[in-house]
């Protein structure tokens, strides 16, 4: 594998109409999870990527496996747990904040929450180019946190790059200091993705640039702060700053998944040898594309589609 990851893959039930879920009559079925979204994004860009997870012995588990296989993600390390269900979550759109989405999890005690160090195949991690982790999996359970810690140690011991997205989900952690303590070690990863909200939890009271410089001093070489509709800013190991504004999109359908698409394209661009500025531009394009549809991965682009999108935006600006 070029890239491997560990995390829960769930069935996403996305509200077809905007507004509070209690009034929503129809939901659309998708398959998603931050880590698998990133792996799918990387496959679309020509890389080989695999996910370590567990699904239930149920219809949704079969759906998750079919979907991952269909997207050509390696599922050779996915296990079926007969005693726990596949996780599910719902997305409420445009309420109470128009243009934003809210997630409601039904994943506690799921098959993936039972991942443990026994599910980590050392060779699978050691033989990949990079291990991609996010702050979500360590929040799922103690055994998940131990599994991620083990994978991290295996990667470190075998000179495998580690790429980390802080992705702090307070609905899972419930307690900020627990999140801060559990995630601290991953901040030395080669590339660290984060956002302003997460930096506020990890480095309370610090400015974005002070927090980025603390992450760099832990050993990271590239810190990328995603800024939603404001784009993103990156800091390299010398604390040079790179900034790109977001693309303007005509409609926002569902912003969930934009960050994962951004990560996939940024990682692929850097591993292809592109400049940080170019990687930020491409990643921003991927994030913009994903907010225009429901579902996290359906609008993740290929290289060709990225170029078409960026070219069309340039033309629109020239005509204005
Ligand atoms: N409304 C938008 N319009 C255009 N582009 C957007 C918009 N929202 C997000 N993006 C793009 O997607 C990227 C990632 O979005 P976002 O900042 O929400 O990710 P995130 O920090 O990973 O979010 P999350 O809290 O869901 O993990 C942004 O940096 C930007 O490039
Ligand atoms: Mg994110």
Alpha-beta content class: alpha/beta
Number of strands: 13
Q: Estimate what percentage of residues fall within beta strands.
A: 15-25%
CATH superfamily: Ribokinase
- The succession of helices and strands, N to C, reads EEEHEHEEEHEHEHHEHHEEEHHH
**How many structural domains are formed by the residues?**
1
What low-confidence regions span 5 or more consecutive residues with pLDDT below 50? none
Q: Within the CATH hierarchy, at the fold level, what is the topology?
A: UDP-N-acetylmuramoyl-L-alanine:D-glutamate ligase
Count of helical regions = 11
Proportion in helices: 25-40%
Which ligands are bound?
adenosine-5'-triphosphate, magnesium ion
Main sheet specs: 9 strands, mixed
At the first level of CATH, the class is Alpha Beta
Please state the second-level CATH architecture.
3-Layer(aba) Sandwich
Order of strands side by side in the largest beta sheet?
5-4-1-8-9-10-11-12-13
Alpha-carbon distance between the termini? 45 Å
Tell me, rounded to a whole number, the average pLDDT: 97
Describe the protein's architecture and organization.
The chain is an alpha/beta fold and 320 residues long. The chain has one domain: 3-Layer(aba) Sandwich (UDP-N-acetylmuramoyl-L-alanine:D-glutamate ligase), CATH 3.40.1190.20. It is 38% helix and 22% strand. The protein has helices spanning 34-44, 59-70, 122-126, 142-157, 170-173, 176-183, 196-202, 208-217, 258-271, 276-291, 303-319, and strands spanning 3-6, 10-15, 27-32, 49-56, 78-81, 88-93, 101-106, 130-134, 161-165, 191-195, 222-226, 232-236, 241-244. Strands 5-4-1-8-9-10-11-12-13 form a nine-stranded mixed β-sheet, sandwiched between helices. The protein has a four-stranded mixed β-sheet with strand order 3-2-6-7. Helix 9 packs antiparallel against helix 10 (276-291). It is globular, with a radius of gyration of 19 Å. The chain starts with a strand and ends with a helix. The model has no long low-confidence stretch (mean pLDDT 97). Residues 167, 195, 226-229, 231-232, 246-247, 249, 252, 255, 258-259, 262, 284, 287-288, 291 line the site of adenosine-5'-triphosphate (ATP).
